[in-house]
UniProtKB/TrEMBL annotation, chains A, B:
Its EC number is 4.2.3.1. Its cofactor is pyridoxal 5'-phosphate. Transmembrane segments: none annotated. GO terms for molecular function: L-serine ammonia-lyase activity; threonine deaminase activity; threonine synthase activity. Residues 83-392 form the Tryptophan synthase beta chain-like PALP domain. This is Threonine synthase. One of its GO terms (biological process) is L-serine catabolic process. Belongs to the threonine synthase family. InterPro entries: Ser/Thr_Dehydratase, Thr_synthase-like, TrpB-like_PALP, TrpB-like_PALP_sf. The lineage of its organism: Bacteria, Bacillati, Actinomycetota, Actinomycetes, Micromonosporales. Keywords: Lyase, Pyridoxal phosphate. The modification N6-(pyridoxal phosphate)lysine is found at residue 121.
Length: 425, 425
């Protein structure tokens, strides 16, 4: 748009990699685990650089995640980005959904199915691959439950770079075709996502993959930061306010922690006032893969891996990397976690579609079903403003509802047939 | 966004309905054919009202089609809209696609798969249903080849209004489920789209459908205007310039005529300078349904209906309502038309995906394949800036490419298996 400015931001505000376990710092590089304690790393920022960011600067930026470039570890220079320009997806007002489930305060659906490859993964991939190119990587890869595969393959196609994507062999057809069509290498693994992930952790150490950035392995700290943009956008779209409650689906658990991190940063750097009662973060899992919610329910912060089952395949990470951090976030903010079984997930997809016009993939069904449970159980305050996150597109998981919905009438093309079918009263 | 203004525009600039055949004018109402000559009607505007519109006013508007409300027949007041807020979809630079097909000038893909229900139909439905509500209709309907069905059902769901959608019985599963999930009535007709359309023309005259707006029948003049927003956006996204060449898929032929109308209006009202050599409009059909292109190739402006076949179902209108107008537009601007067979369509989808990261439905494959033919035949100037329109989403027509693409490797989850498969050099 001619009305916006997408000029290079001076430099990255990222300062170091810091261990989430022991706090040791490392220089910015393609490193994902602490050399001291093997804990996961995340990006640490220069507080002075973050404090210089203004609302006006963000609002004048491009209509995508890069308006927040001054709060991200990479992508400050538009010319250096590897991106499909995701983000600034709709925040949909959902009064009919609120009424249906007994919420009496404003309810919003943050609809990330509107991203270029129709899931929130475009955000994390854009940040990871932009960082990866800056670090000298020339080939792009991932271990994926599906949406990430779509996104990495599409990003690589637009950038003209080779890609190699690893998926479990039993993925939904929508996600397989939507990766393969971009023409990179696509490796189906005879095993679960956790098996795929383990193999990628081994491949990344080989000489043959030295030039390859696995977005969620060796450049994971950058990748994870991309999820912060979901939190930034919700706050900006609410008129620079943080909602009282958010309900977020969990696979690795990382999305949930990063939305919370985004809210905290906005308050710290003075872009948003802290809401009086703080904000509560709620997590949603599928009953077929609920290790994080189960640990929380058991009063533990130790997540015991499970073998995932069920239709919410994009959430089927049985050994979630950020599970303990998700529990910490939910506990600290006064939220809760719950999970939904396959029938509840299907009903959640339909309820969301019928009340908002948003057709979600199974992960969205999980989140809506869990929202409903949290209201019913009294864990979620029905009088407080709530944002629920839909992270993917119903077209990718058609089978979930294909047996439940269809034409209400089948007739021949005549007025008489329409009358016989009751369409004319 | 807090940086934009979505305040009511004073009043609609629409002045009357005017017959495209004989020029007779009628008051604005739910009328779609001329009482004098039975010709189709379109919206006539107050030139003084259009002339008051400024670039600054548009640029300060919302990030969707309603930024152009002052150039549309309905939707001036945000509170009165029936809408999913479509539009402002990406204009994607496509240098690798240009190189692959021998274009040596800038090539852009206007990617309307980014709309809320992932086709350009959200634009026309938003304008049609907003006008319809203003005219007093309480139920929303359409005859559809699929994308329109998705859009009408989703719009009705968000608006909390009843819907009744008529589709041919053999539609792609993706389009059936994505309509049915919204919970309205969905009537599958044992016949072609043209049969469906005829039945709807009869139903609209019955007492039982008196309260029902068929977006592409009784409120068609409003509906068609929604397509103008595609032309406005392309010009604005190019920095208020009109490209030398546009390539547009044709079903009824109306989209093509309205993009041309949008360009003409922008020049007339002074928002854009007329390009030195004008602009050329090119039309794309599927070989299985090519009545408009065939008429042009035969030097005729009489479109002889056909019985459609082939995989590009969203373009399968055998008796296209605006065919003669499309021929007039293409002839007047010095463009041309061509068509692509099913294999060429599939190859077009893959070529677009691999070079741009955009996964199109079959209609997009048609357009890319025809673009390629137009360059090869010399009809399209390879030295002139070109915009090609992708009107829909690949996820809705997965079957088109599902047999052609898939995993490149299938292995067990071990380094040894990866080595045996050649993944380690």
């Amino acid at each position: 748009m001619t009305s916006t400015v997408d000029a290079p931001v001076s430099t990255s505000p990222a300062r170091a990699l810091v261990c989430r376990g022991c706090g040791t710092e490392f220089p910015l590089a393609a490193q994902h685990a602490c050399y001291e304690c093997f804990g996961p790393l995340e990006i640490a920022y220069d507080p002075a650089a973050l404090a210089r960011v203004t609302r006006a600067q963000i609002e004048a930026g491009p209509q995508n995640i890069w308006r927040y470039a001054a709060l991200l570890p990479a992508g400050q220079d538009p010319a250096e980005r590897v991106t499909l320009d995701p983000g600034l997806t709709p925040l949909v007002s959902a009064p009919a959904l609120a009424a249906a489930i007994g919420l009496r305060a404003p309810l919003w659906v943050k609809d990330d199915s509107a991203n270029p490859t129709h899931s929130f993964k475009d955000r994390v991939v854009s940040v990871a691959l932009t960082a990866a190119r800056g670090l000298g990587f020339t080939r792009f890869a991932c271990a994926s439950t599906g949406n990430l595969a779509n996104s990495v393959a599409a990003h690589a196609a637009r950038a003209g770079a080779p890609s190699v994507v690893f998926i479990p062999g039993d993925l939904e057809a929508g996600k397989v075709v939507t990766t393969a069509v971009y023409g990179g290498q696509l490796v189906a693994i005879d095993g679960s996502y956790d098996d795929v992930n383990r193999l990628c952790s081994e491949l990344v150490e080989t000489d043959e993959f030295e030039d390859t950035a696995f977005v969620n392995v060796n450049v994971r700290p950058y990748y994870a930061e991309g999820s912060k943009t979901l939190g930034y956008e919700v706050a900006e779209q609410l008129g620079w306010r943080i909602p009282a409650q958010v309900v977020i689906p969990m696979a690795s658990g990382e999305l949930l922690t990063k939305v919370d991190k985004a809210f905290s940063e906005l308050v710290e750097v003075g872009l948003v006032e802290a809401p009086a009662g703080g904000w509560k973060v709620f997590g949603a899992q599928s009953a077929g893969c609920n290790p994080i919610a189960t640990a929380l329910h058991n009063g533990s912060d130790t997540v015991i891996p499970v073998k995932p089952t069920g239709i919410a395949k994009s959430l089927n990470i049985g050994d979630p990397a950020a599970g303990a951090y998700a529990i910490e976030t939910v506990t600290r903010t006064g939220g809760w976690m719950d999970y939904a079984d396959d029938d509840e997930i299907r009903a959640g997809i339909e309820l969301l579609a019928r009340t908002t016009g948003v057709f979600a993939e199974t992960a969205g069904g999980v989140t809506v079903a869990v929202l409903q449970k949290l209201v019913a159980s009294g864990r979620l305050d029905p009088e407080a403003e709530t944002v629920v996150f839909n992270t993917g597109e119903g077209l990718k998981t058609l089978d979930a509802v294909a047996d439940r919905v269809g034409p209400t009438h089948r007739i021949k093309p005549s007025l008489r047939a329409a009358r016989d079918a009751g369409l004319l009263g």
